[in-house]
Amino acid sequence: MVWYSRKFYVFNVHDNWFSVRPGFINKLSIHSFNHVREEFNSPLLIKEPNYTVELDLTKSKEKILEDFSRTVKAQVRKSEEDGVICYFDTDISKFVQFFNEFAVSKVLSPETNERIASFGEALRISYAELDGQILAAHTYVFDPEQKIVRQMHSASKRFDENFDRNKIGRANKYLHYRDMLAFKDEGIEAYDFGGYTPVNSKEVIESLLQFKLDFGGVKKVSANYFTLPYYLLRTLYIKLGTTKN
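^ thats the sequence. predicted structure below, dont judge the formating
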């Protein structure tokens, strides 16, 4: 299980990933249990569906690439020919700076070093770089026990007029591919792309869904569980216009 704590005003909020923590106290305090793939029932928890796209990493590396759409395969190969380099890094400040520049263009909430660092050892950050310039970056929640990774952030230079948008798009897809192979080598069996609906909505973003399906992923429904105190605070987030859960 992956879990971390953060502050919401004076409250300590606890977010858990991929399974429900045992214990009566955990179900009464301010806890969320996110992306739980096994059915769980408790009168103390509020359940909401979580719509996502997941890729099977138990397939061979050759099969992973083979299952990409024709367009994605071509773009991955072209990005490799361009000389794009993909790597993992632990510099949180570097990622936050890159993401927040992207967030301005996308009208997204900015990130902070503290929030990203709160994931601790479960955090993975990857980059696609060409000629010393970062073109795209991803973050993941990494759980070797559950053998799953779930993407949290994806940022790129595609809104920067100084960069070729086609090259950026190819680099982002290539980064997904290289991340998949790296996680497979670490024993991960499921690569979760994250949701394809807006936060706190069931409306499907068709282009986002298709982007993820083009990698050979399949739609999945898991569940998020909230304790009542967490659910009430989350409702307050939404009323305040905050989209972070």
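The radius of gyration is 18 Å.
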